[in-house]
Amino acid sequence: DVVLTQTPSTLSATIGQSVSISCRSSQSLLDSAGNTYLYWYLQRPGQSPQLLIYLVSNLGSGVPNRFSGSGSGTDFTLKISGVEAEDLGVYYCMQATHAPYTFGAGTKLELK
Amino acid sequence: QVTLKESGPGILQPSQTLSLTCTFSGFSLSTYGMGVGWIRQPSGKGLEWLANIWWDDDKYYNPSLKNRLTISKDTSNNQAFLKITNVDTADTATYYCARIKAYVFDYWGQGVMVTVSS
After folding, report:
1. A65 close to B (CB below 8 A)
2. Which of residues 25-84 of B touch A (CB under 8 A)?
3. Residue bearing the bigger pLDDT, A111 or B77
4. Are the Cβ atoms of B96 and A50 closer than 8 angstroms?
5. How far apart are CA B60 and CA A26, in angstroms?
6. What region, left, alpha or beta, does residue A65 occupy, with left being phi > 0 and alpha being psi -120 to 50 degrees?
7. 8 Å CB contact of A106 and B46
8. Do A48 and B46 touch (CB under 8 A)?
């Protein structure tokens, strides 16, 4: 199975600060058709995960543009440019290039 | 507007079969490229993908659960189902269903908590 390693596991930020989360894959997520099925989700406390980013760098519907995704192959990054209070929660990366689909262990974003 | 809602038994005993239903609206599982996936999350832990079913009735399962999973759908009633046989305490979790469009799990249900206990 593909292992996704997220760092850091916990992130403390102040409102307005820019932060980044890394997601590294144990194998390339680029498929033979040239697609990279890497996604980012935010799970707020007591809620279900919501899609932030799909296919590495595409913003989900209704997601603020302070969120951005980048990367290729095995290394991916989610950046939040100016954290807001509503951004607190656990961030997960997920891959769907290789079966079984797998998730990273999560990064908890807290207020400093 | 896309919505999904999971339902299940709440509590069941070890060795029983868990039956989950995902009732959705705002899309059709007969539409080309559409799918529904099931994901679970033990309390305080991470996410585990379980299975997908596609518009053409193609099905994919997480091999870690071996032959315990069965996914199905009722297109006319906008429902998808997941059965897990021979449950034990390790199957205690919140179970989510999600719409899959163009391989993106874009909308998730609120989740249903399932406890396996004797």
Report:
1. no
2. 37, 46-49, 60, 62-64
3. B77
4. no
5. 22
6. alpha
7. yes
8. no
C-alpha distance from residue B13 to each of A76, B41, B52, B83 (Å): 41, 19, 26, 15
pLDDT of residue A22: 98
Angle at A24 between CA A35 and CA A112, to 5 degrees: 120
pLDDT tops 90 at residue A112: no
Q: What is the pLDDT of residue A2?
A: 97
Rg (Cα) of chain B, in Å, rounded? 13
In this prediction, residues A28-54 reach a mean pLDDT of 97
Interface test with B, best of A101, A102, A103 (most B CBs within 10 A): A101
Instruction: Encode pLDDT of B14-28 as tens digits.
Output: 999 999 999 999 999
- Asked if B15 is an interface residue toward chain A (Cβ–Cβ < 8 A), one would say no
A51 touches chain B (CB under 8 A): yes
Confidence of residue A92 (pLDDT cuts 50, 70, 90): very high
Q: H or E segment at B69?
A: strand B69-74
| Alpha-carbon distance A79 to nearest alpha carbon in chain B (angstroms) | 20
Task: Fill in the amino acid letter for B70.
Answer: T
Asked if A96 is an interface residue toward chain B (Cβ–Cβ < 8 A), one would say: yes
From A104, A102, A94, select the one nearest A38 (Cα to Cα).
A94
d(CA B111, CA B6) in angstroms, rounded, equals 6
